[in-house]
Amino acid sequence: DTAVSQTPKYLVTQMGNDKSIKCEQNLGHDTMYWYKQDSKKFLKIMFSYNNKELIINETVPNRFSPKSPDKAHLNLHINSLELGDSAVYFCASSPAGSYYEQYFGPGTRLTVT
Amino acid sequence: ELKVEQNPLFLSMQEGKNYTIYCNYSTTSDRLYWYRQDPGKSLESLFVLLSNGAVKQEGRLMASLDTKARLSTLHITAAVHDLSATYFCASNNDMRFGAGTRLTVKP
Predict the structure, then answer these.
(1) What is the nearest CA distance from B100 to chain A, expressed in angstroms?
(2) Residue B102 CB: number of other CB atoms within 10 A?
(3) Residue range B88-105: average pLDDT?
(4) Nearest residue on chain A to B93, judged by CA atoms?
(5) How far is CA B77 from CA A30, B18, B61, B105, in A?
(6) What per-residue confidence (pLDDT) applies to A21?
(7) CA distances (Å), B89 to each of A75, A97, B65, B99, in order?
(8) Would you give the distance in Å from CA B57 to the centre of its chain?
(9) Is pLDDT at A76 greater than 90 in this prediction?
(10) Is A40 exposed, middle or buried (0-12, 13-18, 19+ CB in 10 A)?
(11) pLDDT in tens, B33-77
(12) Mind telling me how many Å the CA of B48 is from chain A's nearest CA?
């Protein structure tokens, strides 16, 4: 059984479009995260939710909006896509707090043309 | 702002050799994580270090944490090809990751 799943795995789209990436975890974890990994492999946290409440909101453009319908899901919606948004986006989850390691999803490779 | 710095960023070593990867962080963190990422794959947790002086070992990898020096190390013993990957350290302080160390183990 997949612990943290993301859809789609690959996403190719044109500049200006709006797209969403979905994330689901079946581990019963309270905290979920979105990370962006650029072409140089730098990994940067974007958002963190704990029990559907936003707890980390790094400096990312307003075009990025996370949505957590329940604690098992954290979706990422991106408006007006730009070339610089091309990256791999990872969803992750962990039990409440930072005492535990995170479990990462397989990643979504977003290419904006 | 917290900075997490790893070195070296690239490491090429021969099988059977030992080496250490260093992770320095600039402000107080009471948790330090190590992750492994294979090319084109996701991240896999290796170690969670919870307190000063913590040492954890798994196979040929051993991680340690010195919170006073703000330093964590990942020591590789008798490297084998299967250890080739990128290794990241991360602080629980805003979940800041280091830049990663790309390790290549050659026969």
Answers:
(1) 7
(2) 17
(3) 93
(4) A98
(5) 36, 5, 7, 12
(6) 98
(7) 26, 18, 11, 8
(8) 12
(9) yes
(10) exposed
(11) 999 999 999 999 999 998 888 999 999 999 999 999 999 999 999
(12) 6
Residues near A19 by beta carbon (within 8 Å), at least 6 away in sequence: A11, A13, A77, A78, A81, A110
- Angular region, A16: left φ>0, alpha ψ -120 to 50, beta rest: left
Q: Where are the beta strands (DSSP E) in A19-81?
A: 19-25, 31-37, 43-50, 53-57, 64-70, 73-78
Residues A48, B95: C-beta atoms closer than 8 Å: yes
A41 to A37, A90, B53, B82: CA distances (angstroms): 5, 12, 29, 20
Structure tokens at A73: 């899901």
Quote the DSSP letter at residue A52.
T
- All residues of chain B having their beta carbon less than 8 Å from the beta carbon of residue A101 are 33, 35, 45, 48
- The B residues from 84 to 103 touching A (CB cutoff 8 Å) are 86, 88, 92, 94-97, 99-100, 102
